[in-house]
Each structure stands twice: as structure tokens, then as C-alpha cells.
Write a structure and sequence with these properties.
- The complex is a heterodimer of chains A (about 525) and B (about 375).
- With about 525 residues, chain A is of the alpha/beta class.
- Chain A has helices at about 20-25, 25-35, 50-55, 65-80, 85-90, 95-100, 110-115, 120-130, 140-145, 150-165, 180-185, 205-215, 225-230, 245-250, 255-260, 320-330, 340-350, 435-440, 450-455, and strands at about 15, 40-45, 60, 95, 135-140, 170-175, 195, 200, 240-245, 265-270, 285, 295-300, 305, 395, 415-420, 445, 460-465, 470-480, 485-490, 520-525.
- Chain A has 19 helices and 20 strands.
- In chain A, strands 16-18-17-20-15-19 form a six-stranded mixed β-sheet. In chain A, strands 3-2-1-5-6 form a five-stranded parallel β-sheet, sandwiched between helices.
- In chain A, a hairpin with a 3-residue loop joins β7 (about 195) and β8 (about 200).
- Chain A starts with 12 loop residues before the first strand and ends with a strand.
- Chain B is of the alpha+beta class and about 375 residues long.
- Chain B folds into three domains: about 10-85, Ubiquitin-like (UB roll) (Roll), CATH 3.10.20.740; about 100-275, Alpha-Beta Plaits (2-Layer Sandwich); about 305-360, no CATH class.
- Chain B is built from nine helices and 16 strands.
- Chain B has helices spanning about 30-35, 85-100, 120-125, 160-170, 205-210, 220, 275, 305-325, 340-350, and strands at about 10-15, 20, 60, 70, 80, 150, 175-180, 185-190, 215, 230-235, 245-250, 255-260, 290-295, 300, 330, 355-360.
- In chain B, strands 2-1-5-3-4 form a five-stranded mixed β-sheet, with helices on one face.
- In chain B, β10 and β11 (about 245-250) form a beta hairpin.
- Residues about 1-5 of chain B have low confidence and may be disordered.
- The chains are: A alpha/beta (about 525), B alpha+beta (about 375).
- The interface between A and B is large, with 148 and 113 residues.
- β9 of chain A pairs parallel with β15 of chain B, so a sheet runs across the interface.
Amino acid sequence: MSNPLRDMEKPDVIFCIGTNMTEAHPVAATRLKKALAKGAKMIVADPRVIGLAQKADIYMQLRVGSDSALLLAMANVIAEAGLIDEGFIDERTVKGETFLDHVKQFPPEWAEEITGVPAATIREAALLYGQADRGAIYYTLGITEHICGVDNVQSLCNLALMTGNIGREGTGINPMRGQNNIQGAGDCGALPNNYVGFQSVIDPENQAKFEKAYGRPMDREKGMTKVTALNLCGKGVHAMLIDGENTVVSDPDREHCEHALRALDHLVVIDIFMTETAELADVVLPATAWGETDGVCTNTERRVQRLRAAVPPQGDAKPDWWIVSQLAQRLGFSGFDYTHPKEVFNEICELSPIYYGLDWDRIEHSEYQWPVPEEGHPGTPRLHEESFINGRGIFSVVTYRDPAETISEEYPVWLTTGRRLESYHTRTQTGRAQGIEYLLPEERLEVHPADVQDWGLLDGEWARLSSPRGSVKVKVMATDRSPRGTVFASFSFADVPINILTGGGYDPATHTAELKVCPVRVEPVNN
Amino acid sequence: MNQNGHHPKQKTIILNGREVAFFEGETVYEVAQRNQQDIPTLCYDDRLEPFGGCRLCVVDVEGMRNPVASCTFQATPGLVVNTHTERIETHRKTLLEMVVSENRELEVDPLRGYASQELTDLVSLYEAQTGRFQGSQSGTTNTEDDNPFIFRDYDLCISCYRCVRVCAEEEGDYAISIMNRGFETQITTEFNGLLKDSACTFCGQCVQTCPTGALGDLKAMRAASIPLPIAKTRTICPYCGVGCSVDVLTKGDQIVGIHPAMDGPANEGALCIKGQFAFDFVQHGDRLKTPLIRGEDGRFHPASWDEALDRAADGFQKVEEQYGRHAVYGVASGRAPHEAAYTMQKFIRAGYGTHNIDNCSRA
């Protein structure tokens, strides 16, 4: 997030797109509710009538995968109405003119055709955001899990840049991160393109720095993403070390994924439970869980916080850092003689410009949000206040593209996937928490009541969903949360492995899977 | 700044004989708290709008005949306030005795909730007698509600409405409200139905702010009979990326519950159903407790760490020898701490000189 969580109580106009925040980030959503109670206006764009939509002043029910068309039209309206922040564009950005010229081609009437949102509603929403004193944008995977995820994010940046809604209290571009330490995993360099602290691997200076730090020559080419690696299993990639990820259930195209992992000569999985992925391993190593592990995590607002052990580990479980270090030592790798997580974290700080002012002892009270470039620096709750990290904000010339797969005679229904309040991802944890089943005992496919009738389904009865990659059985729930022609399911329940169906396409830049759009066929099952 | 470049004189009140400064808009209660003059309260929660319901926070203000509720009374320059006069303390004791006359029991297990000891503590501080006022009781419990998270025993309710207010003001859900008045007062959901059929999201905020234990954390209460003290460990919730601060409650080596951290920067006392109630996966019987190696028979067999690490290392070594250093790939977790992700990427980079490392953020 460009802005701190506490800023969520400050906007006068909130724009939420592709974020089911009341279910996926409920505590963050309480801050938006407070802003609304104080009089803020909210625009919500989502294919489904989610909790936020019910609280919105303007709700745009767009077709899945049509976000960039909607956002181009909003930019068109804002430019046409003269609501751009010329001073900000002149002083802080580049390519503004090109962008403003580009968006002239995309009036709301054009976007209505693609998104299904009435042009008048798009116009109204654009004017509301364009007139905001403090307009804040919030998004989640509904923006990024598309073949055009990067375009979508850049489209949101364009809106913020053209209206100067960045670098101030209650504004910003604010992605809500989904996992407790997904931000931290990136911060720590678990990425094929960056060393720790987002230092590019193709930069010769960084290469020299890490060759020295790690005591060996280092490739100057980026590594491959996990998506590429899974495609190359058995054909270039022959061994994998997977830490705490249930790849088989959480990733798209389950069959491909299982096939890939089976094609490896050697698979080692570190986890806390025997997951569907661990079942495929040659060696499974038991890790300590949350509550048993001392360490550090970083939240969605870049706040660096301490995790503390409250109880001893179960059985022989060991911390991940210990396991990986032991393995490294056995392979003769140097620099793994850690005896305490503190030593690992302090090394992260030493090698990372954004953590350089931190160490284990300094983060005791959760005060710091990175970047913290030097000791004594107070941290950076709000990014881009004076200038952008790379100098100026760059407008991106984005165009609309259809999803990788679009509905057809064979697969006439849009499936979109996501999360539910009561369960977390593949339920390895919430599925083992007593009581959760009282509220959420099983997966249900959310179908509009009229579609339930038209497609010969019955509320509470079984349906079969099929895509070009496979099919799954799931019980139907009639609900007007779903629009006509679009159905929803989560990927949480092992007996409804929805990711058998997904995986039609990936963003070419990030390799993020298009988990939010998957044309399917829905048929009743009689049994 | 005034014309001479000086700050105008700070506005002050006289609090228990001492001149103390106050900020614009502060209540007398807030000024007193800041100056370590502890005023008792029951309906007060500093996250909520002052309510002035319990009247325990009354203070003497010079020039006013009756005591005033300090939580709703704004400080004004020159106010002379006494917080603990004999008259006020007697008044508080009587009030407490009237409040507890409704309550069947006073001692409630601290596992019921974060604020559950407030009433008990005040009664013992004021040596209030519990049997002084006999009369009707307000509130009855919906005994049909079988939800596994939130215990509701309205016999212990003192109508402070903190639960109703926290649900509305902090959580923004308005799942519960107040029906009737006086001895007929009842905290209830819409149509007095089950919590799960209401707007309730089971975030647990009502439980944690209840000052009497009328609301309780059913999952934590399961450990009430364990004869060990409760210890608290501050950490961060294991679920989404918001990063809420929590205190893990333990008895011995067992995790028994979660309290939200009122001073957590991300959550300021709030949690959701997962952070509040879904903690027991940690000590679930399904946890992997020993390394496992796949045998010739295709099955997993328990192994020592030495055996398992040797076998794991051996496999990586063979693959590197046969296919080269680019044939090894690492996937780090978005769920484990920094130290896990960092050592994972260092394993690949320092071990193989490649960047064949990723994490689970692309799916």
C-alpha cells in the first residue's frame, strides 16, 4: 500500500475495485466503514454484489475481466471534465500528454459495450473520484489475477496520477496483500528478478554486491517464475524445494501442476501438515507453526513486525530457517551457520537498503514501515510524498484485451473464484479450527436464482462445472450476489478442487494466473 | 502563535488541587486519565463514543450541585474538578452495589474475554456488597443459539451497551441492538434470532469489550478448568496481510485463546473470525511431528532429522550433478516468517548462483 492502514479512515472518496475486503481483509474494511460513517462516498466495482457493494454510493457491476476498459473510460471522463491535476502532472509525472491524448478514444459508451456497466454510471463514478479532495484506491486479486493484471494496476495508477491522488493523507494506490507475510517473502528476495530489498538481479552493481555477500559468482539473468518452472518440470527443472505452499490446490490447473511435480527427480516439501503437495514429495520436513516460531513479518502497509513463539514446537518440528540452513550446510553451501533467527534478520537488514535502518531489537514495538534507509530514520508510512522512488510517476498507455478464454457455446458461463470470510486458502489451517464448520461446512457454487432455474439446477443440489481442463462437482447456492451468467466458488475445499478448471492464461509480465476468469459449462448432476 | 511569537497560554483546569493542561475537545475523564488520576468506569471503552451510562465516572465540579459524568463532560478553562471526594466514592460504591444486585455471579473466568474482569475488580476495589439490593433482573439468554464461538449469558449483563456500540462504531456491522428499557432491557439480534442468521461476522469484538463476562469466548473457556495461570505472548495474526497484533493466551504449553491487542497499530483492538477463533490448527493432532522419507515401497516412513536431511541433500546433489545448477528450483512461503523466505532464496542463490526462486504470490 502506498498509504498506511490508518489513512483508510481519511478519504472523502473511496474507490474499491476487485477487492472483497469485508471477507478477505475484514479488519481493514472496518476502517473504510468508519470513513463511510464520517461521510465519505464509496465507489465499488466488482462483478459480484459483495459486502462492500451493498455499502457503496455507486456500484459498478462489471463483467469479469473487463476492468481496464472501465478504468480507461473513467480516465476519459475525468480528462474531458477538466478534473485533472495539471500542477501534479507537470511537476511529478511523465507521458501525461500522451496518456490524455490516448484516453480520448475510450468514452463510457465504448466501455459500456465491454463491461456491461451503463455509461451514465461510469460517468458518475469518474466524476466523483475526479472531484475528490482525497481519493483513495483499494484493490486486491480481482485486479491482478488476470492476463492483463499489470495493465489493470497501471490503469489505477493512471487515475491516481492524473488527479494527484497520491502522496497525501487519505489517498493512494493501495493493494491489500493476502497472506500474512507475502509482502515479506518479496522483501526478502524470494523472487526470480530481485535480491533482498527489491534489488534487481540484472544490475551489475547488485550482482557484485551479492557475489561478495554470498561468496560465489551469480547469474546476471533473471531466474524463472514458478509458473515457468512448473511448465519445465522434468524438462530442465528436476528438483524442487517447496516451503509452506500447497501448490497443487492453490495454483491453477491442478492436473498440470500434479503432473509437473510428479515429473521431478527430487521433491522436498517443508510444511506443518501433510498437504496434497507434501503427498507428492520424496522427503517431507516438519516445520514449526505460527505460535511456535520467533521471526519477523511485514504487513500490507509495509510494517515490519515481530512474530513470537508462545508454545514449544509439536514433536520434532523445526523452524524453516533452521531446516533450510541444515540442508544448505549438508550441501557444502557457506553462510548458513545461523544459530538464531535474529542473525538471519539482521543479515536481511544489512543487505537491504529499505531495511538498512532496522535490526531485530529495533522492531520490538511494530513502529516501522519500510523504507527505513538508515539508523534513526522514522520509517515511511506514506510513499511518494515528495517524489516517486524512480523520480517521476509514469503514465502507462494501456489498452483493453479480452481474457485468455471467453465464453462460447461450449463454455457459456463465466466462473470467477475467490475467498470467503470463514476459510483461509486451502483450509489447511481453518479446516482444522474447531467451530468454523458451523458457519461454513462446505463449498457452494453461487448462482443467480434465475440462472438456477434456466439451467435446470436446484438450490442445494449438485452441479457439474466443466472447463477445457477438467470438471468438478459442487453444490449450488442460489443467490443474487452473483450476476446473471457468472458463477462464483472459492478454492478452499479439497472436495471441490476448483483449480482443476482454472489456468486458461497468465499475465505475460508477472505470470500471475487468470484465476478470476474461467469460462465453464454448468450442468445439473442427478444422483 | 500570537503577535509576540509566543504560544498563547495553555488552557488548564484544576484537577484534584493541581493545575493541569488540556487539549481542545478533551473530556474531564480524558484529562484525568492522562494525569494518572484513575476514574472507575464500566461503560467506557476509549475506542467508542462516550456514553455516560454507568455513572461511575462521576466527579465533583465546583459550582455544580450534582456530580457530573466525566466521560461526557468537556474540559473548559478554570474548571475545578475533584475525582475522589468522599461523597463521590460513596456514590460509586452504592452504584456498584446496585449494578451487581442483578448479577448471579461476580467471579467469571478471565478466559471469557479481555475486559471480563472489570466489574469484579471494581467491586473488590470498592468493597461493594453484592447482596444489598434485591430485585428484578434484566436480560435473558437465547438458549437455542448453538454457535461455537460466542457465549451469551445475559443474566450477567449490566446494560452498558459496550457490545452494541463496538459492533456499530468499530466493526460497522450493527448485528446486535438494544430492545426495551429498564429491567426489560435485552441485547439481541434482529428478531431475536441466532447470531449466525444475523449480520454478525463473529469477529469477537463484543466479547472482548464486555466488562462482566456476560459475553465470553467459548473456545477459550474450554480451558477454564486447567489449573494453570494464563500467560500472554504478543505476536501478529497468522492469516491475511493486514497484520493485526494479538496476544496469544497460553496455559502451560497449550494455546487456549487469543486477545486482540488494543495497541496494535494495524488493528487497534479489532480482529476477524479467523484471527480471533481459528488458532487451534497449531496444536491439532494432524501436525507433522517428524521428518518423513518416501521408501522403496512408495510410502512415507518416519526418519530422524539426520536421515531426512541427508536424503534431501543427496537428491539435490544428484540433480545438480546430472542436470546442472539451473535444474534446482525453490518456492518460498508467503505464510512463514522473513527468515524462512530469506534462507530459501539464499539456498538457491548462494548454493547454485541462479535466481530460480519464487514465492506463492502469483496464484
